[in-house]
Structures are given as structure tokens and as C-alpha cells.
Amino acid sequence: MGNNEKTYDICIVGAGFSGLVLAIKLARAGLLVCLLDLNRIVGRRILSTGNGRCNFTNRRMGKEYFYSNSSLDFIEDKHDELRGFLRELGVIERELDGYYYPITNQAKTIRDALENEVNALNIDVFLDNRGTDITKTDDGFVVTSHRDTFNCKRVCIASGGLSAATLGSSKFGYKMANKFGMKVTKLAPSLVGLTSKDICLKDLGGVRALGAVSYRNARCEGEIQFNKDGISGYPIMCISRFIGFDELDKKLSSLSLDFVAFMSEDELKDEIKARFNRNSAATILASLNGLTNEKVTEVVVSYSRIYPDTPVSKLDDEDIENLVYNFKHFSMNITGTKGFDNSQVTAGGVELSEIDLNSMEAKKVKGLYFTGEVLDVDGICGGYNLTWAYLSADKAANAIISEV
């Protein structure tokens, strides 16, 4: 028991994307680094990012793509720097409309590249080591795992959040923050599907349709995916954090779905009238063909209290108003999210007011750093959470290197 024969310059708890980036940058600068992780391989969660394809960053970058309970003015555009960092490791990229992926279309490419560099730098890696405690000493810190103890001058907690338990989620970072007198916000699952018992799913289960989803003040466009017990897809994932917090506070509202997001209400009204005038003998379903998925159209027509075989010649302005409203403001009841285990990221975390955002060092504990998901920053879909993992690790690395 014990690795007291070494005193590390830094012990990094968590060998995910942020922890690996930090370890590499510090080891390149000559620091003695050790990595602890509760999994049996480094970067295990990287393998699941982007549905296994690993969308690692995005050309569109700014604070508007991130959420926090605190100001995000410190967010920097590091997407080009991240691309360069991975290219040095042998990762060739491809860009799809501003979204960056490895050319192999495999998340494993990025995980393996990071692991290869860690091995090349002879960084000490201790896997299957679940962090249990951190103790401040006169000389630095003692990090305790369920297997061992590690002496170090500094500690970085990069242990992630509560999401995806099967891939190694952990409460460790939050517990340690509380131990050292730091505040942690409420936590909710984000980038996660939603559950619903809405009757519309009887007809829409299995349907995919382009559109926009609104929840309170949040709105996002993309492909909406309906299933028998809920709803998912890009726009759902992007707004799911708000449903997660409302579920926690027991104040859920309904979703508003816009199935014709490419038209305004007036444009849609004119479009429908033009279709009706073009062939007044056509049934309503035939006349509305091509506006959106046919199953969606059938449901919208039903919700507008119009029979599907009704000739459009028998419809009046009120019917058109109802159709426009239901196409543009289709209301769907939800029962919550699919929980942390099915989420890609945790919303909330260690309060940013507790952190020096230039160095990622805890204000109350010199030598204690936090990076990545454990902090109160989460991004929408599109490579933003890995970019945050890189940005925070880069800030910590630069600060530590400057003082040694």
C-alpha cells in the first residue's frame, strides 16, 4: 500500500479528456505527473462521444453555446488550438458544416492518440483506482483511492459528473469541493432524451421529423425523434438541461414543437391557402403533402379537428388558423428526462465563484485545481463539452507551468 516513494508535482484524478490533456501538457513541460481513474482504460467516456464518432469541437464558438449559473465571459475560442493539439498527436480531422470529427469517424482514434502520448511521456497511470479522499498537508496533498495513496504538491480534480454511470460517473469531485468548503450548484442531466406519456406518441412513435423545439425561453432546431415512451434528437438534447432542472424543482412545463420552422406563421398561412386554391377538390392530406413528415401532418390535422379525407373546399379561415397554430405550436406533455445514466453530460457543478478562472485553481485551497465537467459549465451538442474540457485543462496547465 502506498506510493510514497514518489512525490508528484501533480496528481490528476480523472483520466477523461480534460485530465489527459492536462497530464500531457504538464508532462511535456517536465513535471512529474500521475493520473488516477476508476475505469480500466483511460478516456473511456471519449469512446461514446458523438455516437462513437467523437465530434470534438466546432467552428462556431462563443459563450452563447454554453450554460452556467455564473457569467461565461471568460470562455475563449480555443477550437483551432484544440484541433492543432490533436493534429500533433496524429489525429487527422474532417469538417462537416463546422463540426469537427476524426477522419476515421471513430472516437477510438482520439482516445488512442491521447493514450499513446501519455505512454510516450512515461506518465504514471493508475487505473481501476477510485478516488476516495484528498487531504491537505504542509507539503501539498495526499490523494487516497480505494487501492492506494499518492503524495503530491498539487491536485487537479477532473473526475467528471454524474452522467453515464456505466462509463464511470463519480460524485468524488463534488464531495471534495464540499469538504474544502466550496459550493456546488444543483445538478441535472443534460444532453439526454425526454420521457412522455403524451397520446400523440401512439401515432408518432418511430417518426423522425425536422423542426424546432421550444421550452420556456429555450429553442433549438434539428431532427426530432419520437419513440414509444418519449422524444429525443438534437434539439431535445440541447434544451434537456432546462427540463432536468425543472423536473428537480417539480415545475415541469410542456414542449412546443414547430414542424414548419422554415416558415413564419404568415408564410405558412399563405402556403396553405395557395395549396387549397390550386386544387379545391383535393383532400386535406393530399393538399398538405410535403410540408413535413406525413405522420406528423396526420396528427396535426387530427388535432385541428379536421377529418383526413375532408376536401379542402369545405375548410374555412378558422380551420386554416387551427392548422397553422398546430403546425407551429404543437404542444406535447413530458414527464421528465431519461436521467443521469442516459445523459451525456451533467449540468451544474462546482460554483465558478469558487474558482480563479484564469488558473482553474480553487480560491480557498492553493494547489487544488478543477477542470472539465465537474465545474458548473455545460455546452450544447456539437463538440462544445470536449472544447470546454480542453479550455479548462489548458488554463490550468498554463498557470501551473508558469509557477514552476
What would your notes on this structure say?
This protein has 404 residues and is of the alpha+beta class. It has 2 domains: 7-188 and 345-403, FAD/NAD(P)-binding domain, CATH 3.50.50.60; 193-338, no CATH class. The protein is 30% helix and 23% strand. The protein has 11 helices and 25 strands. It has helices at 17-28, 79-88, 107-120, 172-179, 201-204, 234-248, 265-278, 284-287, 294-303, 317-328, 384-403, and strands spanning 7-8, 10-13, 33-36, 57-58, 66-67, 93-96, 99-102, 124-126, 131-136, 141-145, 149-152, 155-157, 188-190, 194-195, 208-215, 218-227, 230-233, 255-258, 330-332, 336-337, 345-347, 355-356, 361-362, 368-370, 378-379. Strands 19-18-15-16-17-14-20 form a 7-stranded antiparallel β-sheet. Strands 8-3-2-12-24 form a 5-stranded parallel β-sheet, with helices on one face. α1 (17-28) packs parallel to α11 and α7 (265-278) crosses α10 (317-328). The longest helix has 20 residues, at 384-403. The protein is elongated. The relative contact order is 0.18. The model has no long low-confidence stretch (mean pLDDT 96). This is Aminoacetone oxidase family FAD-binding enzyme. Keywords: FAD, Flavoprotein, Membrane, Transmembrane, Transmembrane helix.
